[in-house]
Amino acid sequence: MKKTINILSIFGALAFLASCSSGFAPVASDAVVPTVVTEATEFDTDDPAIWIHPTDPTKSLIVGTDKEVGGGLYVYDLQGKIVNKVTGMERPNNVDIAYGLEINGEKVDIAVTTERKSHKIRIFSLPDLKSIDNGGISVFDGEEGEGMRDGMGLALYTKKDSLGTSSIYAIVGRKTGPSGTYLWQYKLSGTADGAVTGEVVRKFGTYSGKKEIEAIAVDNELGYVYYSDEQAGVRKYYADPVLNDNTELAFFAQQDAKSDHEGIAIYKTGDSTGYILLSNQQNNSFLVYARDGGNGNPHAHEKLADVPVSAIECDGADAINLNLGGQFPNGMLVAMSNGKVFHYYDWNLIQERIDAQKK
């Protein structure tokens, strides 16, 4: 135990110095210390996603992007060790995971990432991380202008019908685009040759024009999509394209962040309860909102807490509420941090801070 404490103390000091030199807020002295810090990638980590093992949650994996030309997807175990990777990609940005895409009669778990410089999204099977997209699915076809086809943010929405059949959609953001159609939604389908294709089924999303839209998260159970309109706030829409309803349901966190609104993670405590966590990037903290809204309004997301963490300039995040065993009995929050790493936080440590600020 003494050795662990010393390592974490050294980590905290280094994090403090790094944040000071970057011009961002220093890591707070009372910041939550990560339970695990992953091994480093080659270039620049950006966004993580959690894959849950179907029979043994302790064998679950974290998939994260290394955001640079030549970078790729890295797969980590729950101890933060790199166990697989695909590199040589054209600047992968955000990643998300979905379960049970039907391909040739088989249900396949997938990781999907934007590949910014190739103007594509890439599909990989899990847990083996094999490409199943015939080189990628082109996105934002026909758009012109700098950054208009540069895929950045991405989240997957899974819709199940009464028979339990899943339809999986990729909601994709970009470096820049017009307000009203900034986000494009693609239905993913398996083909006879074992690959995956994508069809545009929807274009939506208000954009302030202040910076960009990168972080996107979907609440499958409640059917909502959230995205960070950086330096403006978080916008909320229905996730189901079949509803044909592009009404903006909420626009919150407008005055809460120090500057950029970044990574979004959803931690669920029940069918409709839990938390929406938003990276307050320049403050090295996570803003926390009620998943189910407030005062009887499911779209009234008022700030509950602002939890300081040791992650520096966090871009992307993910959370899970399952017992992963060992150090994560109530799940975890995974956050990107400067230093080419991801942080795993025992959820109990985050919950303690939320509870303390809610009192």
Topology (SSEs and partners):
Blueprint: H1 2-22, E1 36-37, E2 45-51, E3 61-66, E4 72-76, E5 82-86, E6 92-103, E7 106-115, E8 120-126, E9 130-131, E10 137-138, E11 151-160, E12 166-174, E13 183-190, E14 196-204, E15 213-219, E16 224-229, E17 233-238, E18 250-252, E19 261-268, E20 274-280, E21 285-290, E22 303-308, E23 317-320, E24 332-337, E25 341-346, H2 347-358
Essential attributes:
single chain, mainly beta, Neuraminidase, 5-stranded antiparallel β-sheet, disordered N terminus, inositol hexakisphosphate 3-phosphatase activity
* Overall mean confidence score, pLDDT: 93
Q: What integer value in Å does the Rg equal? A: 19 Å
CATH architecture: 6 Propeller
What's the number of domains?
A: 1
Q: Using DSSP, what is the number of strands?
A: 25
Distance between the termini: 32 Å
Strand content: 35-45%
Shape: globular
Tally the helices.
2
**Sheet with the most strands, sense and barrel status:** 5 strands, antiparallel
Could you say what the CATH topology is called? Answer: Neuraminidase
* The CATH homology group name: TolB, C-terminal domain
**Uncertain parts:** 1-10, 15-22
- Proportion in helices: under 10%
- The CATH class, by name, is Mainly Beta
